[in-house]
């Protein structure tokens, strides 16, 4: 009888451990599914008022995605988080939020793809990436946990449409330390401590 009790307890403990281990994976799957729906709504510019409400991504769900910062870039949360991280890690959250704004503004806009990962990777096939970190030849794995945790939280809010657009609709940006030729073609919309932001003039196309 005692042996049966011990065996039963062991089985319960084992099952509980498996459930705990599986929980982050389940949260990550749920987050990816929600993100895909939110991404599609953003790409088609569905207004919150006239479209059915999509389920928002929770903090714990977003943080369960790509926990080690080494996953392939093939889902919206990872692609957006990694872009925020590499473009503005170590900077004030304002800069990180503004990078997220540009990615979301590009999503589905004329001249830009309809998924976040495609937006981030755009131009790599010609060797002229829109976001330089994606094809700079270096590892894309995360190096610092805290900035990546913040990047994922900002990505979550951006996908949930809970993030203020600090760029006033910008589609382009550059570091203050550089002055690219293309900047003179567009209207400057906003500035942060690290970046300058731009959008096309009314008569211009959305490509450069």
UniProtKB/TrEMBL annotation:
Residues 90-198 form the Cell wall hydrolase SleB domain. Residues 1-21 form the signal peptide. Residues 41-67 are annotated as: Disordered. It comes from the Bacteria. Keywords: Hydrolase, Signal. InterPro entries: Cell_wall_hydrolase_SleB, SleB_dom1. The keyword Signal applies. The keyword Signal applies. Pfam families: Hydrolase_2. GO terms for molecular function: hydrolase activity. This is Spore germination cell wall hydrolase CwlJ-like protein. It comes from Azomonas macrocytogenes (Azotobacter macrocytogenes). The lineage of its organism: Bacteria, Pseudomonadati, Pseudomonadota, Gammaproteobacteria, Pseudomonadales.
């Amino acid at each position: 009888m005692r042996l049966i009790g011990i065996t039963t307890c062991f089985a319960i403990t084992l099952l509980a451990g498996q459930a705990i281990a599986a929980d982050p994976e389940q949260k990550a799957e749920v987050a990816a599914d929600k993100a895909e729906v939110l991404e599609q709504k953003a790409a088609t510019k569905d207004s919150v008022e006239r479209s059915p409400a999509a389920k928002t991504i929770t903090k714990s769900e977003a943080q369960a995605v790509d926990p080690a910062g080494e996953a392939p870039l093939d889902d919206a949360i990872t692609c957006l988080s990694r872009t925020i991280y590499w473009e503005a890690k170590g900077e004030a959250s304002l800069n990180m939020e503004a990078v997220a704004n540009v990615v979301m503004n590009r999503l589905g806009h004329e001249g830009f793809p309809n998924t976040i990962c495609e937006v981030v990777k755009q131009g790599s096939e010609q060797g002229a990436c829109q976001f330089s970190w994606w094809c700079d030849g270096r590892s894309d794995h995360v190096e610092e946990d805290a900035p990546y945790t913040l990047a994922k939280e900002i990505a979550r809010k951006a996908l949930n449409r809970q993030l203020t657009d600090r760029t006033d609709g910008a589609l382009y940006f550059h570091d203050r330390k550089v002055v690219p030729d293309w900047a003179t073609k567009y209207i400057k919309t906003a500035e942060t401590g690290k970046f300058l932001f731009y959008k096309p003039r009314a008569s211009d196309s959305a490509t450069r």
